[in-house]
Amino acid sequence: MASASDPGPVDLAELRAAQPRFSGLESGHGACQGCGQALAARLVLEAAGPDVIVANATGCLEIFTTPWPLSAWNVAWIHSLFENVAAVASGIEAALKIQGRNTKVLAFAGDGGTFDIGFQALSGMLERNHDVLFVCFDNEAYMNTGIQRSGSTPLGAWTTTSPAGKTRQGKRHLKKDLLTIIAAHGIPYAATASVAYPSDLRSKVRRALSTEGPSFLLLHSPCPLGWGHDSSLTIAVDRLAVESGLFPLLELARGQVIGRMAIRTVRPVREYAELQSRFGHLLADSPEAHEGLEHLQAIADANIERYGLLASGPEPRDSEGADTVRRGGTRWA
Amino acid sequence: MRDILEGSEAIARAVALCRPQVVAAYPITPQTHIVEGLARLIADGLLDAELVSVESEFSAASVVLGAASAGSRSYTASASQGILLMGEVLYNISGMRVPVVLTCANRAVSAPVSIWNDHQDSMAVRDSGWIQLYCADNQEAVDTTIQAFRISERVELPVMVCVDGFTLTHTLEPIDLPDQAQVDRFLPPFRFTRKLSSEHPFSAGTLVSPDFFTEMRYLQHAAFEQAAREILSADRDWSGIAGRSCGGLIAVEGDREAPTGILVMGSVFGTLLDAHRSGDLGRPVRLIRLRSFRPFPTEALRKATEGLAALVVLDRSLSPGSGGIVSHEVRSALYGLPSAPRILSVAGGLGGRDLRAESFRTMLEGLDHAGEWDLRFADLDPDRLPKADSAPESLADAAPKSTNPFPEKE
Fold this sequence. Notes:
Chain A is of the alpha/beta class. In chain A, 35% of the residues lie in helices and 13% in strands. Chain B is globular.
């Protein structure tokens, strides 16, 4: 019997919701100051909740979180290799499925493990319709090995293997349009997100996890070391990536665009480039530099037109879901 | 009950009797029939398992790694190029101490491209930390497959069941397939101590600094000592149920007291046994069959070779620039024994070339004149070598050549 002073039986779901946000990635790990990837991973797990198994590709995120015998992960987590995370996640999902377990499976990889070396396994996972959320923490180069160009590195960006010099203006190839390739698999849900828009990011994670079948999140994650910006500017830099049109925030279902974050005030690519030394050579007063920057600007303009990103009115507040705490899975409610 | 079954079909049914929950494989000759057999069993509702038809062998190995880590008994199969493509994952599976079973339908490795049988593929990953068991016939392939799951799960090491491509996989033999109750009595349900679970989260596959790496490698190596005991006990216990033994770690047949021996792995043992029984070897010979290549049974080998004055070790693979791989290991295991036999290393049966009774007879003749470190290529035909660049005399067998199995076009 409940007395007057006894609040009675506890609603576990309510109690859980009243608690602080779930921290799947604990502090104390060895990421660099201002690491966009560490922030991004924490935000993804905040939205996903504890009832998950994470398969993590080789890369910074794996290295800085798990120096044996320590681990910064509060979730079930496995690292196998660089290029097989989608296949490992497929195996985990197949096992959970036949065991009748409802735990959500997440695959974490950098752009190397997604755009390049891990692409085949990813394509196979999507084609086979595994119920996995694949998150690509896109910092646009091989940062773990010390800033080498990847298929995701933007045109003109300096890396150690696409240096700017007398005859070259950084990377000579375009950033691979991975989202379109992913969308062409016809998967139920694919989206891009940015650490500068955490509420948008979280809601996309929740949407992905509530969708049956494979989903994909391309998560722009600045790397202060590799991009050459001040570590206090991670959010500002990534906001400019979105506001310039270089990294549009989109949602796609079965290959069709179903959502876009509108840009009210388009910022010139130059503003984005000015904060990062990787684009420093494009700011020089030379015909090659002008051409390089113009090319980048043209890419941003094309994105804005292609996805219809222009909108009028005041800048939207990134507040969706900011006042609620929801989590994937129910077992832990 | 004995049925006439193709080797691959028998292996697929043996796997199904072990109740795997996840099967992942990629087609490659001569393995393909095995996974096709499993796919049919699943399609017919005779096996309740997830079949993950992956886009590469690399992913096949990765899928079973993930699935076993998540708590499901998992199986894959491959051969040749597929085994090599899996290579990185094979090391990873063993290092992470994940129990899975893989059938290697042994095949040569390109180039030159060959779909036919030798042991180059499994030898290429001999140091990957997998238990390797070689099967003499399809009955053994069935029995070893069943034993492999128990061995793997008890010692938390992956097991590669090596069956000769075509010679076994595509050959129909009378096979006694055990019934489900027999297998259930032998093999308990899958239980992995480090199963991934959101209720008991932990991190698997973490970064290990030099402070711990040596210790982890030591533990991996030490597990193989336990594996040797488990291989023996699995074979003993299974023979108690099925009435058949596969020969433990190493089996000796023929003239057990003879001072001359031949050591082989895999299905060529059948040819050797036939040659012995029909007197084609021309002398009393102790026939030694190495079943467990990893763990390498040094003590058992020493016992099996006791009293031998001379031993032919047949390698169905080659480490170019060095020689026969198994023979090096046998030499190493017997090194320092006061009465160690003289060893002739023979590379033979490469890329599917048949070894016949007279091949063994020639090896034995070669043994009489061989130096301590000789390497011979069985049935090497100097006529098929470029004239200007013919093989050194010492590499070729001295005996006359038999008919050409691959006659050149006129």
